[in-house]
């Protein structure tokens, strides 16, 4: 039976072949630059996709929460890193993981470091997160006083071990000049490496944004890369130049429930609870919540004339349809929607269906069962 025959409601499709190609391409790039690839699994959040990643010599992984780290623990990872300013209220949960799994956290202040050395029961590594222009979180790259304070506190305990510096240049998502931005990243991490290398000879530096990791070829002396979105990519990454639309490995299958040919609109069952509400805005001011692809037995094809979701509500999606699409679609058909932000779409859906009709786990779906 075709996977298409199994779809009666919004379903997130995963093309394993494209996904594997994306993982391999980034793993090859990391190897080419003598860097370690430590992917951020906030995108995939899947044991199965983790097993695919291990086939490409990926041994460590990054999570965005303690809950995700709990889900990934015990799956054979050499280390799990939580790339979020650590929440000290979750130290008891951290201790449970650290009892059986190598794990590291991210520190941005002295107060959390102090609580960790007082409450940790098992060894835990830590990165100091650096802010070199993004402005979301992290220690200012020039604030050596705060860095020294965190490091001095950590030295008071053999349970809290310094691993290095982590920098997420998230402004690469909205700054067009990624090479100029990455010069800041390279310079910041290189400066910190050389400043602290004599005291911490094994320290590593890691950068984490997908646009930069996908586009750049000059990483200087950065040791590790930790992108996440690259396993699937999405329309946002395509717009930023990090991938082609053909590299997008997931699409949301949505049933057609009504057609308004006079308005060139198609109503589908697929809205914010399935796609989230990330949006691209074109030069003409039109909002794009996802683009239509045509599903077939082997996956999907991208039409020459673009049709896109012009608006979404909780369960509804309204497609602005091309003449080509209007001529072929009928009520009861299944269309595919390439997501604007695949991480959020996957998080909303909680599982994947492969093109051979098999279900692939996702942390959100797994943890509620």
UniProtKB/TrEMBL annotation:
Pfam families found in the cross-reference section: Ala_racemase_N, D-ser_dehydrat
Keyword Lyase in annotation: yes
D-serine dehydratase-like domain: residues covered: 249-356
Keywords: Lyase
Record bears the keyword Lyase: yes
GO biological process: D-serine catabolic process
Molecular function (Gene Ontology), one example: D-serine ammonia-lyase activity
PANTHER family referenced in this protein's UniProt entry, alphabetically: D-SERINE DEHYDRATASE, ZGC:162816-RELATED
Protein family according to the UniProt entry: Belongs to the DSD1 family.
Name of the protein: D-serine deaminase, pyridoxal phosphate-dependent
């Amino acid at each position: 039976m075709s996977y298409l025959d199994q779809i009666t409601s919004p379903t997130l499709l995963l093309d394993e072949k494209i996904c594997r190609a994306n993982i391999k391409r980034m793993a090859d790039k990391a190897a080419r630059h003598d860097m370690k690839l430590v992917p951020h699994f906030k995108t995939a959040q899947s044991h199965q996709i983790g097993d695919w990643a291990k086939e490409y010599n990926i041994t460590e992984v990054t999570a965005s929460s303690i809950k995700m780290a709990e889900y990934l623990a015990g799956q054979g990872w050499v280390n799990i890193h939580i790339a979020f300013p650590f929440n000290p209220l979750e130290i008891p949960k951290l201790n449970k993981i650290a009892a059986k799994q190598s794990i590291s956290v991210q520190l941005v202040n002295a107060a959390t470091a102090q609580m960790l050395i007082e409450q940790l029961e098992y060894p835990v590594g830590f990165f100091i997160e650096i802010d070199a222009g993004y402005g979301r979180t992290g220690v200012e790259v020039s604030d050596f006083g705060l860095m020294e304070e965190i490091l001095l506190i950590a030295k008071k305990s053999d349970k809290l071990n310094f691993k290095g510096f982590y920098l997420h240049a998230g402004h690469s998502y909205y700054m067009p000049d990624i090479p100029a931005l990455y010069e800041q990243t390279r310079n910041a991490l290189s400066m910190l490496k050389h400043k602290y290398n004599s005291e911490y000879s094994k320290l590593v530096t890691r950068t984490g944004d997908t646009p930069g990791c996908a586009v750049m070829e000059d990483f200087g002396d950065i040791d590790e890369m930790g992108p996440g979105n690259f396993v699937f990519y999405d329309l946002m990454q395509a717009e930023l130049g990090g991938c082609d639309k053909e590299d997008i490995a997931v699409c949301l299958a949505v049933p057609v429930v009504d057609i308004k040919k006079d308005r060139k609109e198609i109503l589908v069952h697929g809205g914010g609870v399935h796609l989230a509400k990330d949006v691209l805005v074109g030069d003409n001011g039109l909002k794009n919540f996802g683009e239509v692809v045509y599903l077939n037995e082997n996956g999907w094809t991208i039409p020459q004339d673009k049709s896109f979701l012009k608006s979404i509500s909780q369960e509804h999606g309204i497609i602005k349809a091309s003449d080509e699409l209007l001529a072929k679609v009928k009520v009861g058909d299944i269309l595919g929607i390439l997501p604007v932000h695949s991480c959020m779409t996957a998080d909303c859906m909680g599982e994947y269906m492969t093109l051979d009709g098999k279900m692939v786990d996702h942390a959100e779906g797994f943890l509620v069962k």
